[in-house]
Amino acid sequence: RYLDLKKAEALARESQIQLALERVRARTMAMQRSDELSETAYVLFQQLTVLGENPIQITIGIIKEEEGLMEFRVTDWAGSGSKVNLGFNVSIEEPTLIHKIYSAWKEQRKSTVVDLTGKELEGWLRYRNEVSGVPVKSADTDGRRMISVAFFSKGFVCFSTPQPRPAESILLLERFAGVFDLTYTRFNDLQKAEASVREATIEAALERVRGRAMAMHNSNDLSSAASMVFTELRKLGINPMRCGVGLLNKEESRKAQLYSATSSDDGDSLSLVGWVQISGHPVLEKIYDAWLTNEDYFPELQGESLKIYYELLLAGLSVKVPDWQSGEKQYGTFLPFSVGWFYAWSEAPYNDAEIKILKRFGTIMDLTFRRYIELQKSEANAGEAVKQAALDRVRAEIASMRTIADLDKITPLIWNELTILNVPFIRCGVFIMDDSQKLIHTFLSTPDGKAIAAFHIPYDTPGNIAQVISHWHDNKNYIDHWDETAFTDFAGTLVKQGALASPEQYLKTIPHGGFHLHFVPFLQGMLYVGNTNRLGEDEIQLIQSVADAFSTAYARYEDFTKLEAAKQQVEKTLVDLKQAQTQLVQSEKMASLGELTAGIAHEIQNPLNFVNNFSEVNNELIEELRIQNEKLKIQNSEQVEILNDIFQNNEKILHHGKRADAIVKGMLQHSRSSTGLKEPTDINVLVDEYLRLCYHGLRAKDKSFNAKFETNFDPSIGKINIVPQDIGRVILNLLTNAFYAVAEKKAVPRPPKGRVEYEPMVTVSTKAFLSTGREGRGEIQISVADNGSGIPQKVLDKIFQPFFTTKPTGQGTGLGLSLSYDIIKAHGGEIKVETKESEGTVFIIQLPMI
Fold it and tell me: From CA 850, how far away is CA 779, in angstroms rounded?
């Protein structure tokens, strides 16, 4: 019985061992990442505990013979019941424990036991604490450690116990070591796969950065292209506390242009923070020397040296960044390339793998900045070419002036060329000095290139005019700053002298706080540029170049002014004749086009009517045939299917025929000339009537349609002369489009989270105003606004073209806005559109009151 029980217990023990080994195997096969090796070791620790071995800790050793190192992975079971995983490298030459284990492994032994006590144990613990950074006290070891070691192909598995373990425990450990050989093989495979994935990830990141660098079209693209390097580095897990690029030029000695990378919610960016002198500190000196010799440099800064370094660095920068000095110790990485270096500062030194990645990105940074410098040179050459072209255009345009009326070209010309030359301004103009009449002929431009006014002011006008004249006589620049009060006083003086009709004409573009006035002299006067900030010397030089070119060309113009006086009447007659001829030709062309369109539409209408009529007749015949089949009780499924198909085909023919009919009718409306007579009409009543007609008409067609509308009518408008039917048609078209836009937007589903209920709204308003662009005549404005989805910018230029529509096929002919445009033009008015995608659209009609 005793022997049977011993056999049964041995079998049970073997089953427990096999189960424990299987659990280790299962955890091994479940590994998805190489960093799960410690998890597998922890399972091994658990299973040994279950089998009654109760080790203090399990250690996995990976022998790296070529490197002379042994990688330790220690799994402890703390008293709290939590697992502690620790990894560190030790030298195989460590004599107390490691070299003994290494020697046994080299001898290809299956296992060995190392007994550590006294000074040997203390020496080993001291060494372990030093390399691992996790202290273990001698008191915690009970004065003895028995290290039982079992080997596998690439290393060993061992556990520590206070007392020697029996031979059975060593054999058990050998079996676990055999299983762990499989674990390590899978670990190696996973490491290789992860290395391949990592390399593919790095290469993809490099390719993205390389592609962005090659896609740079101008030097302004530098920030987005270079900052992508830091974005990709962060994705790869490299997060320096500060990084950027320094550009160096051997001709500039130790002066460097410093760029710093910053990160925000909007993304990464690289911006120029200033110029610094790379000297005065050992690290700064070494940075420059390492760049000259093309060597990598890895400085360390702490304490007083760190403080002095940043004081020197920040002294040369245009921005102050105090947090750069944070931290007790900083580790630098400086990687040189052809025109500078790529740098990064971190709280811990980068390992070899991270430095290799940084070097690869440094190569891309070299490509980026070399392309940036090439683009800068190209832009400088292009800028000079643009400057010369601008000056040539000034000379050519002014040299082509023959009449006094041509002086109106001055302000748009100067505005355009200053804009091309990238000179910042909010006003510009020319002051032509007339010493004989003691007058200044002034031509001013608004920020959008339109003339504010052309007026003539006497030399003795109060204000700073005397200073302008004095500087012109002395051929000197005159720069001053006027506040709003100074401009208001000057505008009042011009109104009193009759140079301006109202001060608003002059003051409407004056910003709050006024601006700086810059007068640059030329032979006949002063070129004037106004800006909120004072312009720099480079910009003044550009203005002077334009002024000199203007002077040369204007001298030629003056030669023609005398001839202009004699030829003025003849030229006027010729211009009037040409205008009349042009209008006549245009009228004939439009009439011929209308006749042609009407003829084509009529010709299409007849066959189209036949198509529609016969489609309807065919459907009636099919319906009669169905009824007849039912009476005769003929049930032929194939015949029924054919009849259904024919019926559906006829329905499609009829549907598209009616579409074509609508288009033809639209063409007829578009081509016919209006025969209506203008009559005094209350525009407010007309708009209100068509608004309600449109709304209730849409409601009648679609009961589910619903939208709010508001009116804001100006009661001062009264009656104006229009063709009410034509204007009503325009208003109806605009209202129909507006209600359609809000209905379409409401139909779009919105996400429930943070949802704001959309309320369709159409607003119609009218107002009277005095036009500034139509010789000051009275005009009325009709606005139709909606809060729909807006009109895409890419199609905005096409909306008034015939047959163009943004509606789905079958829902619009594309003639409504085109017809509306023609009607408004025939009334001597204008129709404009203002839109913002996803926010809404406003159509504005302007009509003369007479």
Answer: 8
